[in-house]
Amino acid sequence: MIRIGDLTLDTADPTTQAGLAAAAVLIVILLLVLGGFLAARRAARTADALTEGLAGMGRQVRDLSDGQQRLTGGLQGVAEAQAAAQTQTLALVERRLEEVSRAMGDSLAGSATRTARSLGALQERLEAIDRAQSNIEKLSGDVLGLQDILSNKQTRGAFGEIQLHDIVARALPPDAYAFQATLSNGKRADCLIRLPDPPGPIAIDAKFPLEPYEAIRAADSPAAATEAARQMRAAIRSHIRAIAEKYIVEGETADGALMFVPSEAVYAELHANFSEQVREGFAARVWIVSPTTCMATLNTLRAVLKDAQMRAQAGAIRRELGLLHKDVGRLVERVGNLDRHFGQAQQDIEAIKVSAGKAGSRAGRLESFEFEEAAPDMVALPGGKP
What we know:
By secondary structure, the protein is α/β, with parallel strands linked by helices. Helices cover about 75% and strands about 10% of the residues.
């Protein structure tokens, strides 16, 4: 039994069952319609939402297309700007490369020039070194030759004579000396300086013994040095005595002679370590000279020669001075005469000027026909002169 309000339905009744079935079917249909309507509304809302979404998507697509176009334009501008910048960069790089190349070229050219100059200077220095080497080799040969010369007495004497000849020829006139001059005692001097009397001719010897000096230089022990020094003293004394006996001749030569030592080192050694023998030479009137001191001594002797020549010509000079004094007196007299002649000539010229002035005045009066009474100065004087 089903009660609906005041209505009671019997479920066993076929009519009720049919009605219930029809009501159920109707309810089902209503539910289906309601469901369809609700589904339609949902579909409509979904379609609206989809339409709005599609519209939004369209707008986004348009915005995206617009952005893409703007991006394309921007990319094109960027590409153009990048191309322009790349072009400018390439041009700048090319200019810089040209400048760098030019600078490198100039630098390389300057470096090449400097290198060439340095190589030239180096070549010149090498050539100078080669020449110096040749000179050194030649000098070594000359030194060896000089040692050979000094090791022999005769060649050593010739070497000293040649050196002495060069010094004397430079210091004195040719008529003031003679080489290998023979004295009255038969001895031959290496050089004889012709000095006036007093002091008279002075002889120079050029054969100094060098063996003891070489022994001193070669001594390798105190005993050898002492023995060499003893030999040196004995040789100096002997040579000084020989020069004094051979080249100092009373009444013929000067009261002294010169001992020429052709080496400054030997001369210094004598004065440093053998001063006693040097003083012995002074006592024997034998003076030791080196090439330098010999030149100084000869220059002094040249002054003596010049003074002697002046004294020899003193009489002639006084005679010439007397004649010159007379000539000067005559010149003074003749100048006075000439001065008087010039004074007379000046007076004559002044008189001529006066006469010329008067003649000019008369000529002017004649030209203007001014005939006046003759002035007192126009009266003729005896002799026809105005």
